[in-house]
Amino acid sequence: MKVLITGGAGFLGQRLARELLARGSLKDAHGKPQAITELVLLDVVRAGDFGDSRVRTEVGDIAERSVLESVIDEKTAAIFHLAAIVSGQAEADFDLGMRINLDASRLLLETCRQRGHKPRVLFTSSVAVYGGDLPDVVQNDTALNPQSSYGAQKAIAELLLNDYARRGFVDGRVLRLPTISVRPGKPNAAASSFASGIIREPLNGEAAVCPVAGATRLWLLSPRKAIESLIAGLEIDAAALGNQRVLNLPGISVSVDEMVAALREVAGDEAAQRIVWEPDARVEKIVGSWPGRWDTSRAERLGLSGERSFADVIRAYIEDERIQVR
Amino acid sequence: MKVLITGGAGFLGQRLARELLARGSLKDAHGKPQAITELVLLDVVRAGDFGDSRVRTEVGDIAERSVLESVIDEKTAAIFHLAAIVSGQAEADFDLGMRINLDASRLLLETCRQRGHKPRVLFTSSVAVYGGDLPDVVQNDTALNPQSSYGAQKAIAELLLNDYARRGFVDGRVLRLPTISVRPGKPNAAASSFASGIIREPLNGEAAVCPVAGATRLWLLSPRKAIESLIAGLEIDAAALGNQRVLNLPGISVSVDEMVAALREVAGDEAAQRIVWEPDARVEKIVGSWPGRWDTSRAERLGLSGERSFADVIRAYIEDERIQVR
Questions:
Q1: Which tens digit of pLDDT belongs to each residue from A177-236?
Q2: Could you tell me which residue ranges the NAD-dependent epimerase/dehydratase domain spans (chains A, B) (predicted)?
Q3: Relative to the CA of A28, which of A39, A159, A188, B186 has its CA 20 to 30 Å away?
């Protein structure tokens, strides 16, 4: 079985690759595990290849048809489409967001359709497809109402995938991811970047700016659970999904104040005091439009699960990233 | 004021043009009536020009950038975007539906953005954006779940327009139209074509095939009210719409059996007996996925209204089209 990860040099892409290589197989459309013989990592920069002969790294612009045609062929049985322009950047550069989040996603589906072998295709989507006056708990039948170009582009990609799946061009599925926290590394241009920064930087002995109020409620998932969910999501039986290919993933609903309390619990007062509160209206507007919780019963029935406590998420981060708490 | 109608040679386009020429003006963004000095009718075939010097007819492919650039300039203050591939045809020819219903709609928005003058742009959408397990009365916050490529393309165009409006590129609005009945003329490739045919043909002394069961519930609007709504919709104050530019238009919820009863009431038993019941699974699947009623309180608050009785709709059709009932 040949597997493709777009955004394969990114944080989630690299983790997913490592996990897939460790597992060695993925279930096919009949629920039967098939050995992964080739894992293609496509990105705009060269992905790490883990010194594994199954890995092939490709560098290219995913919005170019020839690039997609070079990495998707009739043997490509599973595609994890993670490449995206994040929320803050898609708001700042409208054309770039449209090109990658919309055009490239469509081109990927179209390339699969041309190949004609109906591969499994997993898209990731986001809390950002919701917005406006939301119920306390967003339901599966709550209308999408994106308040950012990123959210609009993700919502459009969902509709495209659903229709391509309904028509039998791909065996598609979309996972709406909670905000991922704690991400290792550096801040990025996502409006939600602070949701990792206010934990990661203080654990590292550094100050972190929190641009939203403490009462702001977030819907979070750890990188560890995100990777588990991506693999489980790709392996879900198509018949169980029917004509509705989009799933709201389980997460934890926490306020920023509760995140800070968890940080204090795990790493002490000193760490929590490294957070500098500097409200940023632009970030508050985007993040404040996202749901703080959604109904996850459908995902749970399909075998997907999230975490129980944010303090555990912080502990898992410390363990996974081998952090020396200062 | 310069006004553009895409799909200007179509049934609604021609009626809208006639009504705009009769009114002579449209309210601008300040609510002030402005004389219509030029009315451009764009379509793939030459539109009728009514022998009116204000009318300019243009023939072209709306998915071509140069065509849109030739009909939208900084003086184009209002655009009614009616051009579309109907539901049955978009299902039969996926690429054509994507090209006209999605690509052309996006190109139209993009052309406006490039011009930079923020015109009022009205898109029409459809019951077909809904589907799946629907509540008896679809609400404003009921999730879209299109079960046809036409519905998916319309839902995507809504999201695009909403985001272009939110970003200030256009002053956009989308009206979700009920199924229009009674349309004059000939059957078309819309899955809902029968909703006019089963009234129009019997009134004309001809047989008409009804491809769905009598219990099938439809959400209908007359052509007369549709045209009124398009104009009222374009004239709504942008501030009253805020960041949610999509409106579910008022209509009448009737079963096909009730439509036939209304036909009998207006034109007698003989007319009703000209309907031939021949279920067509393809049509039933598409039409059966549409809502039979939706909440219209928001549209009503904004001054839009529908009809009260389907018998009145038939009578209005007989009057407007000067039908001699046989």
A1: 999 999 999 998 888 999 999 999 999 999 999 999 999 999 999 999 999 999 999 999
A2: 3-209
A3: A159
Quick check: is B317 catalytic? no
Please indicate if any CB of chain A lies within 8 Å of the CB of B277.
Answer: no
Catalytic-labelled residue, pool B130, B150, B164, B317: B150
Tell me the pLDDT tens digit for each residue of B39-94.
Answer: 999 999 999 989 999 999 999 999 999 999 999 999 999 999 999 999 889 999 99
**CB count in 10 Å sphere of residue B75:** 12
The CATH fold of domain A2-178+221-248: Rossmann fold (3.40.50)
- B146 at interface of A, judged by CB pairs closer than 8 A: yes
Q: Under an 8 A CB cutoff, do B244 and A145 touch? A: yes
Burial classification of residue B53, based on how many CB atoms lie within 10 Å of its CB (0-12 exposed, 13-18 middle, 19 or more buried) = exposed
- The tens digit of pLDDT for each residue in A104-157 reads 999 999 999 999 999 999 999 999 999 988 998 999 889 999 999 999 999 999
Cβ of residue B142 closer than 8 Å to a chain A Cβ: yes
pLDDT of residue B181: 96
CA distance B82 to chain A (A): 21
Provide the strand spans (E) within chain B.
2-6, 25-27, 33-35, 38-43, 55-59, 76-81, 120-126, 171-177, 179-180, 208-210, 217-221, 246-248, 252-255, 275-277
Contact B163 A146 (CB under 8 A): yes
Return the domain boundaries, chain A: 2-178+221-248
Residues 6+ apart with CB under 8 A from B61: B44, B67
Q: Which of B141, B143, B159 sits opposite A156 (nearest CB)?
A: B159
Asked if B141 lies within 8 A of A143 by C-beta distance, the reply is yes
d(CA A288, CA A105): 27
Q: How far apart are alpha carbons A206 and A210 in whole angstroms?
A: 13
B87 in A contact zone (CB under 8 Å): no
Per-residue CA distances from B274 to B161, B200, B316 (Å): 43, 11, 21
Preceding omega of B182 cis (within 30 degrees of 0): yes
Lowest mean pLDDT among A59-63, B120-124, B131-135: B131-135
Query: Is A147 in contact with B166 (CB distance < 8 Å)?
Result: yes
Residue from A130, A150, A164, A317 carrying the catalytic annotation: A150
Residue B159 C-alpha, separation from nearest chain A C-alpha, in angstroms: 6
Q: Residue type at A132?
A: G
